[in-house]
Amino acid sequence: SLKMASDSPESLMTLCTDYCLRNLEGTLCYLLDNETLRLHPDIFLPSEICDKLVNEYVELVKTDSIFEPHESFFTLFSDPRSTRLARIHLREHIVQDQDLEAIRKQDLIELYLTNCEKLTAKSLQTLVSFSHTLISLSLFGCCNIFYEEENPGGCEDDCLVNPTRQVLVKDFTFEGFSRLRILNLGRLIEGVNVETLLRPLASLAALDLSGIQLNDVGFLTQWKDSLVSLVLYNMDLSEEHIQVIAQLRKLRHLDISRDHLSSYYKFKLTRRVLNLFVENLVNLTSLDISGHTMLENCTIPSMEEKMGQTSIEPAKSSIAPFRGLKRPLQFLGLFETSLCRLTHIPAYKVSGDKNEEQVLNAIEAYTEHRPEITSRAINLLFDIARIERCSQLLRALQLVITALKCHKDDKNIQVTGSAALFYLTNSEYRMEQSVKLRRQVIQVVLNGMESYQEVTVQRNCCLTLCNFSIPEELEFQYRRVNELLLNILNQSRQDESIQRIAVHLCNALVCQVDNDHKEAVGKMGFVMTMLKLIQKKLADKTCDQVMEFSWSALWNITDETPDNCEMFLNYSGMKLFLECLKEFPEKQELHRNMLGLLGNVAEVKELRPQLMTSQFISVFSNLLESKADGIEVSYNACGVLSHIMFDGPEAWGICEPHREEVVKRMWAAIQSWDINSRRNINYRSFEPILRLLPQGISPVSQHWATWALYNLVSVYPDKYCPLLIKEGGIPLLKNMIKMASARQETKEMAR
């Protein structure tokens, strides 16, 4: 019962919609002349399905970078006989004039156009075709919809000098929109006469005039018998405005809130104004006065205010004018006002900055249309998550995800939202989160990384990814995560901290994953990127975490992946290996990582001849005596040489050092290791070791392989005994015991 609805699996409807949109050609459509999408002639879909297809399409284009928009998508809904639309929500640059034009024959009931900046006055004409059915319309933030292009003069050359001018359309009104009840004109462009525009509407129920400056709102009284909701966010108010509002007695929702940072604002709220609202607007259930300064004290004396348990009963209200309310309000907006910190507030839901509940209410109420307020509310949530503990974690996560999706291009929201996500996904909250929710977090984090090259956002996103189990939880976006991280690491100017986190993530992503994943990442330029980082660090003569992680990542990505091993050699990896060895003779961690990687290269028969030089063989032989990192460096050096020896004396194409001399040093090294050493290495497969058992050409390689198996199965029996049996190691060991060429001590160990 505690689980949120968002936690349950997606409905079959949602899954099918998503699948069809991602595979339009394979499902509902075919391609005409290889470019235009056409609906199959036998398809008839009701509005329940079509609405969802359109609304989900807009959502996908907006939030999923892999999803390709289709030029001709909206034409699929041009004929109401096969596809019916009723309620659609379109946003931003996704929709253009020709898209609305394509669906003009539909009987739309609800049309929300939010921040559709590409729409021009052509779309106003298209709206007229919906006038007989439209009940609800939003043109919020469609800043060009009242502009048309005026073409000066007929002359071609003249047009180049003097491009099309935009002219404000003055003659459009809502004449004929007989059923329109709900209208949002938020952020309407200056110069449009709102009164003339709205006069033909007979009975408006809800009107939003956010961000519009009107000195005279007397015309609103023509709907005093029908208007139940009025939003005047950021409108400069005066005494005249207040008198008009007080006459709209049917109002249930009134929002006169403002962004207190936006501009100088003469109007101050007084006790008298609030009293006027309470006395006249008797049906009021929701009031928003966020951002207002109170001119005088509306609160009751503080002694009385602090008394008793917090109550939402109007009679006990700490805000004096609200004692006249008949019942508590459903919602009261007090964000960025001093009133939200009072004890007794007569409302079920309050937006404010006093505590987590109020802050979450604010994010919920303002996300859609007021990103400037939302980013400040998320900032408060960030502090709560960082300093205290979030008590409504799932709700908080859900709200931040929604805000990040909704405002993908808003820098403030991306910065504060990505920072809040880091604290909301850390380990102490882990238990409460479902797979679905954690995947949603990963999606918005990757969106942020994609849209913003900005350092703070990149760092926050990378840090948030560190809160997940890698690679398991990122597997479903494997390619994309790697591409984004490599992108960060390939930038010429780099922030040290981001570089460190990104290399750490890259390393974790290629650890313990399937070979096809490693090959794919190799093809993306992973090997090259790591070698470039190593080269830079070498030039600065620094051996830090970035240097060590880069070698470790190369060790992981070359594991049983010959293509990546070859890339390492082709991009002068061996040269860097020798230079690092020379520059940092004391760095044990580094030596271990480098030799682990060379062990992987040496397992590839075709590449071994490239290791067969006097210089390399001498280096490997000298490292046999290394005591770095316990036995690890010596062990890996011996492993490299074991594979080289396995090719036989005829492959030994160098005079110095002699093969026998190296063999002697290998025996000495193996005999010096403690058989019970705890290990700093992780085998996914024994195959490369097992292939050294059934051969007589190099007894020392056989011995190294047997020692390796013996050590691993005796120190970590639970992990490695099953692996040895599964990969057929037992018969190989039994046969080896019978071999004449095998050394006695090797046989003992095998037994």
UniProtKB/TrEMBL annotation:
Domain of life, per lineage: Eukaryota
InterPro entries: ARM-like, ARM-type_fold, Armadillo, LRR_dom_sf, LRR_Zer-1, ZER1-like_C, Zyg-11_UBL_adapter
Entry keyword set: Acetylation, Leucine-rich repeat, Repeat, Ubl conjugation pathway
Gene3D superfamilies reported in the protein's UniProt record: Leucine-rich Repeat Variant (1.25.10.10), Ribonuclease Inhibitor (3.80.10.10)
Gene Ontology cellular component annotations, sorted alphabetically: Cul2-RING ubiquitin ligase complex
Domain Protein zer-1 homolog-like C-terminal: 404-750
Ranges of residues in domain Zer-1-like leucine-rich repeats region: 196-337
UniProt record similarity statement: Belongs to the zyg-11 family.
Quaternary structure and partners: Interacts with the ELOC-ELOB/Elongin BC complex. Part of an E3 ubiquitin ligase complex including ZER1, CUL2 and Elongin BC.
Name of this protein: Protein zer-1 homolog
Name of the coding gene: Zer1
